[in-house]
Write the structure tokens for this entry.
Amino acid sequence: MTSSAPVKRLYIKTYGCQMNVYDSERMADVLRPLGYGMTDDPEGADLVVLNTCHIREKATEKVYSELGQIKRMKARKAEAGGQMTIAVAGCVAQAEGAEIIKRQPAVDLVVGPQAYHQMPELIARAHRAKGEGLAAEFSPEEKFDALPEARHVTGVTAFLTVQEGCDKFCTFCVVPYTRGAEWSRPAEAILAEARGLAEKGVREVTLLGQNVNAYDGAEGGLAALVRALAKIDGIDRIRYTTSHPRDMDEALIAAHGEVEELMPYLHLPVQAGSDKILKAMNRDHTAESYLRLVERIRAARPDMAMSCDFIVGFPGEREKDFQATLDLVAEVNYASAFSFKYSRRPGTPASAMPGQVDEAVKEERLARLNALLSQQQQAFNEAQAGKVLPVLIEKPGRREGQLGGRSPYLQPVHLDGPDHLVGEIVPVRIVTGHKGSLTGELVQALEPA
Ligand code: 5AD
Ligand code: SF4
């Protein structure tokens, strides 16, 4: 799976029973994608793990005495300009907890038993705290790891990167390892770029970030950035993606009700509808808290079109958990969505979880979820028929005399009209809503105000 040689040395000392031997092997497995290869000498190692056991008498004292020696190795490595991370895992870790770090401050992290699958996250967090990068060897998979879905870029619309990285550590995802910690671009640089884009004729910007609503490069966060962008002459439409429910604050919700330029379309992944699965995913929200959040967003902006990501067949997902996802979908009513079968990414915590779901079951659940989601999307599109929507004309259509644009809800709109309308926002009467698009006609009889 991975090709290049590991660049970091991992030393694991295993105490006690067969269970611990097994756990140590799994730790080595999950740490490999982070670039760690085994060594049998702790001297000079980058990561030392003591996988402890306290069945035998004085086991705890033995661990502390071993830690004393390793502490000296850590000091020698630091003198040579290197860094050693020390982790204590297993039963002693559970019994003593944070007490270990109090008694031996050279210890960087304490990991309870059966928590070997948390090692990648804990190590990554410890490294970030020390300002160190990771040599991640996760195999990239564009579908999941790329920045939010890249829509065709025209001269009229543009993407603007405002944030990168992720601190959320969803247990299925490699992004926190491959893209590193959350980082925000300074607002001034973004505003300057947006002004330049506006001068070139861009009317709509989509702010991009792995966790875009965690943006903190301006006082007041993403809401403040959006308000500043909205003041730029020529920037008439603003979108942002992808958001995490956890970072959807009141200021941003309020902006949706108040900033005319902020479009009524929000991609807000929930991933699953079962609280048991959400917890195992480390999502930090429940189905209920997500639903209440959507309610608050719609209170601010009643016509908000909601979009989402879902994963089916996450480890431990039973039929009733999947049913909870369908129930959540039924309650929210999505305008669009992306759904995925859970895919095991070596090194991520979920890949080591028990209860991996059969491929055929995943397929079947995905088909049921997609059937419901496309039904909702089609209903949402059909409901636009008869309305007059402002459409940003993006490009000439496929046929001569045809135009292609977007509704405020990000729906592609096809209509007839002259080429010179490209770059204009014009009122369009929607005639028909289809599965993935709308057809409409120019509203000719607009009286000047
Ligand atoms: N398996 C399935 N789906 C995944 N995603 C990320 N990692 C995985 C995985 N291991 C999905 C999530 C995320 C979207 C970009 O990709 O739904 O929101
Ligand atoms: Fe991955 Fe979760 Fe971060 Fe999204 S929020 S990038 S799914 S870890």
